[in-house]
Design a protein that fits this description.
transmembrane; UbiA_sf; 2 domains; Homogentisate phytyltransferase; Tetracycline Repressor, domain 2; 282 residues; mainly alpha; Four Helix Bundle (Hemerythrin (Met), subunit A)
């Protein structure tokens, strides 16, 4: 997930400034990637530590829930991820990126850790996921890449587009991520939109938001033709929109079985990856 987004944003920054490409920057890019992996490891790890009971029902294959990794070892890994990631960022990317990185770690912490545990509150959980996976990742990576090239930060239309697009997409992921976990969430009295409104309603809400996202993506190149390649943007997003409609129909026909829900959620992630893969071409 991280690699896909980072690759796309770095590629975009380089394509916009090919004359500034210096292969010595590869090492700095690798440092940045390791820092992002560490940050993600910290956020995911601390969430799994505090979700052991729920994961034993919803995701028994996860290492802590399955007993393959002890809680003590998990804590050591989580702390190591945070320390290594922070050390890399503070020594290589300056105070602004360091502050963004710390903000991401902080949001990941209050999402999972009591007494905050904001994942219990749907709106707060959605906002945190959308902020971290949407805005912070895209803005931060693009900012850091331009800084490494010796450039001041400046929004480009494609980067502004992908940041807004993926932020909405991250919101959809936040909304739909609980669909496969309804059973465990109900057992442990975790309040999610899926447990409150039902799987069908949330699936339609997620698909509807994504379709609106795709409609905007199809319209944008006609509004700003000098910034986008309409011959890529229009057919690409139209095809993904059609595929989304079909997958939602498949879910409906399967009567929202557990396997169909999992397949639908995986498909949402595949759409997410596809957007980043094609992003440098738009």
């Amino acid at each position: 997930k991280l690699l896909c987004g980072c690759r796309a944003l770095v590629a975009r920054a380089l394509l916009e400034n090919p004359q500034l490409i210096d292969w010595r920057l590869v090492f700095k890019a690798l440092y940045g990637l390791v820092a992002l992996i560490c940050g993600n490891g910290y956020i995911v790890g601390i969430n799994q530590i505090y979700d052991i009971g729920i994961d034993k029902v919803n995701k028994p294959y996860l290492p802590i829930a399955a007993g393959d990794l002890s809680v003590q070892s998990a804590w050591l890994l989580v702390v190591a991820f945070a320390v290594v990631g922070f050390s890399i960022v503070v020594s290589n990317f300056g105070p602004f990126i360091t502050s963004l990185y710390c903000l991401g770690l902080f949001l990941g912490t209050i999402y999972s850790v009591p007494p905050f545990r904001l994942k219990r509150y749907p709106v707060a959980a959605f906002l945190i996921i959308a902020t971290v996976r949407g805005f912070l990742l895209n803005f931060g990576v693009y900012y850091a890449t331009r800084a490494a090239l010796g450039l001041t930060f400046q929004w480009s239309s494609p980067v502004a587009f992908i940041t807004c697009f993926v932020t909405v997409f991250a919101l959809v992921i936040a909304i739909t991520k609980d669909l496969p976990d309804v059973e465990g969430d109900r057992k442990f009295q975790i309040s999610t939109l899926a447990t409150k409104l039902g799987v069908r309603n949330i699936a339609f809400l997620g698909s509807g938001l994504l379709l609106a996202n795709y409609v905007v993506a199809i319209v944008v190149p006609f509004l700003i033709p000098q910034a986008f390649r309409s011959f890529v943007m229009v057919p690409f997003h139209a095809a993904l929109a059609v595929a989304l409609i079909f997958q939602t129909w498949v879910l409906e026909q399967a009567k929202y079985s557990k396997d169909a829900i999992s397949q639908y959620y995986r498909f949402i992630w595949n759409l997410f990856y596809a957007e980043y893969i094609f992003f440098p071409l738009i």
